[in-house]
Write a structure and sequence with these properties.
heterodimer; A: MetI-like fold; B: 341 residues; MetI-like fold; 11 helices; globular
């Protein structure tokens, strides 16, 4: 361009005439279309899974399903997954009681006390622990617990607590880090010791965020099947309330019934899958809603 | 000593005593709390070491009996095992290592481009109002349990893959060199089906981390590209992607780590063929994780459970290595951009 100060419209006109510019525009459109296609594939896969499970599940889901146990033979119709629902609630509940306090303590250690190499190692290993396959966690509990005390709901709960632990640690650490320094210092200035400051000031401030992470961890644990095969084993015949005995969970019942090949059993498995998905999705959505609230309440103080 | 003074001294003494006491209590409170925290932190380290130790120790009888190197062949036939003989080793695990690798690699080949595309769309293209909804939707993909994906795979995906498999059998199989990977017949339950289910399952991981990585690209870089007259794609190609390359690689490795260990969904659709390697992705196979899930409760042959623990140990080492590499890449990226991820 020779003119020292071309007006905007002149530039645009020149560009529009340029075939190179058109090629660039086309390339841009193609790439945008590809990204849209990727999005369509992703959302499509989600919709396909959810809608199919809903259609198949609602065919069989009724009140009886929620309060009855499966019939003795997979070829027979009727019955429900009451024992699995109870098992999931008990096992995940125990896992939560074990993992939640330890997870928060580790997170507090990482943020408030962790200096130097030990803390860096803990942080790194917590990340690595997220990546340990859950079936290996199950094998570990089998080797340490089941070989000594037998298959039980408690063993299943221990394996799920190991699955949950790193998720709770990392999410709690993230939100505790966000608590403004001023709050802690104000508390120290009033002569409140560090432990009390942490328990009364820091953790309550981060409460919503910590709860969010915990709920996501619970959701993840409720869907786990692999470690339970090696620990809780399953109990398809009657309802077991005692976690010291072998127990069924929703996920185990779905697995067993889905892989039998009998139509009535598979119908039950679809209804079970629907119940499990509803439980997990509502946990996930509530936790997202909570984290949205966190952003609003703590957002002003951050950064 | 006058009475008043004595009282004063006494008061001073008690108050200093009180101060000391409260200081002491404060210090012990803090010390207890700090040690409790430190102990739970160290428990995490101990947990990981214990996991490696106990899984290995359960595998040891089998490793001792057969010798470590005898596991490196491709035939797994527990019914041929006997307490008396240690050769040949009926528990070969190479086909499981191959199965784990091929299923995960195909899953990554599908999910990395799709996941990066979705992440780019969410972070660079879509209107702000839609961002949250789309993010939530992609996260819901991670909320569907593995066993449900597996069941969906059995009922929906396996039949739906038939046309694609037919195309591979009839067309791709004729390509010299790589044709062997697509040879028929299509078994339904197959390496292909497992790979596709897996690719859906790792998508949310790839999307979430890529999105996070793209959000660390400084505004200036984007604006510079825009100011030079770049189209949206050119902004992505010249500013966003170069800056976040190592982060996307890290995201892929984390997805890979997840894929390697995925168990139930894969077990339900891969066919669980343990007697050898099927080079064709239309054939059946097994992974390190699937053979454990499939045989564990029925393992009643000599050294059967112990050999499953050998597979478990191999899986653990494999995923540890991949995850450590991924974390190092992501951490280095965080250090380079001055933001912990």
């Amino acid at each position: 361009m020779t003119s020292p100060t071309p007006s905007g419209s002149a530039v645009v006109a020149e560009w529009a005439a340029d075939s190179n510019y058109r090629a660039r525009r086309i390339k841009n459109a193609v790439m945008t279309a590809l990204m849209l296609a990727a999005l369509a594939v992703t959302i499509g896969a989600l919709a396909w899974v959810l809608i199919y499970v809903a259609l198949q599940g609602f065919k069989y889901l009724n009140v009886g399903f929620l309060i009855k146990t499966p019939p003795g033979s997979p070829a027979k119709g009727g019955g429900g997954f009451y024992n699995g629902i109870i098992g999931t609630v008990i096992i995940v509940g125990i896992a939560f009681v074990v993992a939640a306090p330890v997870g928060v303590l580790v997170a507090v250690y990482l943020v408030e006390y962790g200096r130097g190499r030990t803390a860096a190692t803990v942080r790194f290993l917590a990340d690595v622990l997220v990546g340990v396959p859950s079936i290996v966690v199950g094998a570990f509990i089998y080797a340490t617990w089941v070989l000594n005390f037998g298959f039980s709901g408690l063993a299943g709960a221990l394996s799920l607590s190991i699955v949950m632990l790193p998720l709770i640690i990392r999410s709690a650490e993230e939100v505790i880090l966000l608590v403004p320094r001023d709050l802690r210092e104000a508390s120290y200035a009033l002569g409140v010791p560090k432990w009390k400051t942490t328990l009364r000031i820091t953790l309550p401030t981060a409460r919503n965020g910590i709860l969010t992470g915990m709920m996501l961890a619970v959701a993840r644990a409720a869907g786990e099947t692999a470690p339970l095969i090696l620990t809780a084993l399953g109990n398809d015949l009657f309802t077991e309330y005692n976690p010291l005995h072998r127990m069924s969970t929703l996920s185990l019942l779905i697995f067993h019934n889905a892989t039998t090949g009998f139509k009535p059993a598979q119908a039950r498995a679809w209804a079970g899958a629907l119940v499990l998905i509803i439980m997990i999705l509502s946990l996930t959505l509530v936790s997202r809603w909570l984290s949205g609230r966190r952003e609003r309440t703590m957002g002003g103080a951050v950064k | 000593m006058p009475k008043g003074k004595a009282k004063e001294v006494a008061r001073a003494e008690t108050s200093s005593l009180a101060l000391q006491l409260s200081k002491k209590r404060r210090i012990t409170g803090d010390a207890i709390f700090a040690n409790l925290n430190r102990a739970s932190g160290i428990a995490v380290i101990a947990l990981l070491i214990a996991m490696i130790w106990f899984v290995l120790s359960e595998a040891t009888p089998s490793l001792r009996h057969y010798g470590i190197f005898s596991f490196f062949h491709t035939r797994w036939a527990p019914s041929e095992a006997s307490l008396a003989s240690s050769s040949p080793n009926p528990y070969g695990i190479v086909q499981f290592i191959y199965g784990t690798a091929i299923v995960s690699i195909i899953a990554m080949v599908i999910s990395v481009p799709v996941g990066v595309g979705v992440a780019l769309f969410i972070s660079e293209v879509c209107p702000k109002k839609l961002k949250k909804t789309l993010t939530t939707l992609t996260e819901l993909l991670a909320a569907v349990p593995s066993v449900v994906y597996g069941f969906w795979g059995i009922a929906v995906l396996v039949p739906a893959l038939r046309p694609a498999a037919g195309f591979m059998e009839n067309t791709l199989a004729k390509i010299p060199g790589v044709g062997g990977f697509f040879e028929g017949p299509f078994f339904g339950f197959s390496i292909l089906a497992a790979s596709v289910v897996l690719s859906i399952m790792v998508l949310p991981t790839v999307i979430a981390i890529s999105r996070e990585v793209f959000s660390t690209v400084p505004r200036d870089h984007r604006e510079a590209a825009i100011a030079l007259g770049g189209t949206r794609w050119e902004v992505i190609r010249t500013a966003v992607l170069p800056y976040s390359r190592s982060g996307v690689v890290g995201a892929s490795f984390l997805g890979l780590g997840r894929a390697l260990g995925e168990t139930i969904a894969v077990t339900m659709v891969i066919g669980n063929s343990v007697l050898g390697i099927s080079w064709s992705i239309l054939g059946q196979g097994a992974t390190l994780a699937s053979v454990i899930a499939n045989e564990f409760t029925e393992a009643n042959q000599p050294f059967h459970i112990e050999s499953l623990f050998v597979a478990g140990f191999a899986l653990m080492i494999l995923t540890l290595v991949v995850n450590v590499i991924a974390r190092v890449i992501v951490a280095r990226m965080g250090a380079a951009t001055g933001r912990a991820s």
